[in-house]
């Protein structure tokens, strides 16, 4: 069943006669008694929607070339799509208009700055303003091993190096 054959268009005589006739007035055009504004007011998302850019060649008759150029220029200025675009293409446009993942603050600030904290605590410990008990314990164990003669040999003084001599 074709897309145009909905419950609204069941009064059309027969599918073999083709599509039903288009409405006489452009669907985006302002009401006949209203002003002839080219653009609708900006929507809540901040993008303006063009009233005069035709979506089919037959709709060109009620739009002047000046109005068409002004609508396209307005779309360019406000960062909208200049020509009429289907929903699949608009999805791509939306995707590219967003900020890349790597530049989003919630992504690159996901983890706390551990390296900065570590360097700061190391300096504070050196000045005596912070006590790191685990580091104190490790240093004490290293000192005790050295007193017992169990410390690690310096480079070039291990068992393998002594065998060659």
Brief account:
With 165 residues, this protein is mainly α. The protein has helices spanning 65-77, 87-97, 105-108, 114-127, 133-148, 159-164. InterPro entries: Ribosomal_mS33.
Order of helices and strands: HHHHHH
Q: How many DSSP-defined strands?
A: 0
- Beta-strand share of residues: under 5%
**Strand-pairing-aware structural class:** mainly alpha
Family: Belongs to the mitochondrion-specific ribosomal protein mS33 family.
Organism: Cyanoderma ruficeps
GO cellular component, one term: mitochondrion
Biased composition (Polar residues): 1-10
Commentary on this structure:
The chain is an all-alpha fold. It has two domains: 78 residues, no CATH class; 38 residues, no CATH class. Helix content is 39%, strand content 0%. It contains six helices and no strands. It is elongated, with a radius of gyration of 37 Å. About 9% of the residues have low confidence.
Write the layout of secondary structure elements.
Elements: H1 65-77, H2 87-97, H3 105-108, H4 114-127, H5 133-148, H6 159-164
Feature tags:
165 residues, mainly alpha, 2 domains, 6 helices, elongated
């Amino acid at each position: 069943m074709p897309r145009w054959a909905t419950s609204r268009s069941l009064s059309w005589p027969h599918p073999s006669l083709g599509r039903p006739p288009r409405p006489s007035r452009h669907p985006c055009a302002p009401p006949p008694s209203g002003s002839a504004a080219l653009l609708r007011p900006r929507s809540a998302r901040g993008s303006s929607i063009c009233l005069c850019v035709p979506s089919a060649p037959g709709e060109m008759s009620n739009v002047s070339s000046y109005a068409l150029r002004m609508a396209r220029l307005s779309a360019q200025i406000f960062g909208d799509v200049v020509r009429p675009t289907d929903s699949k293409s608009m999805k791509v446009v939306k995707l590219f208009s967003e900020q890349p993942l790597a530049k989003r603050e919630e992504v690159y600030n996901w983890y706390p700055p551990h390296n900065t904290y570590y360097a700061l605590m190391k300096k504070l410990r050196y000045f005596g303003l912070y006590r790191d008990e685990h580091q104190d314990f490790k240093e004490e164990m290293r000192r005790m091993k050295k007193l017992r003669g169990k410390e690690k040999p310096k480079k070039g003084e291990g068992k393998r190096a002594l065998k060659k001599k």
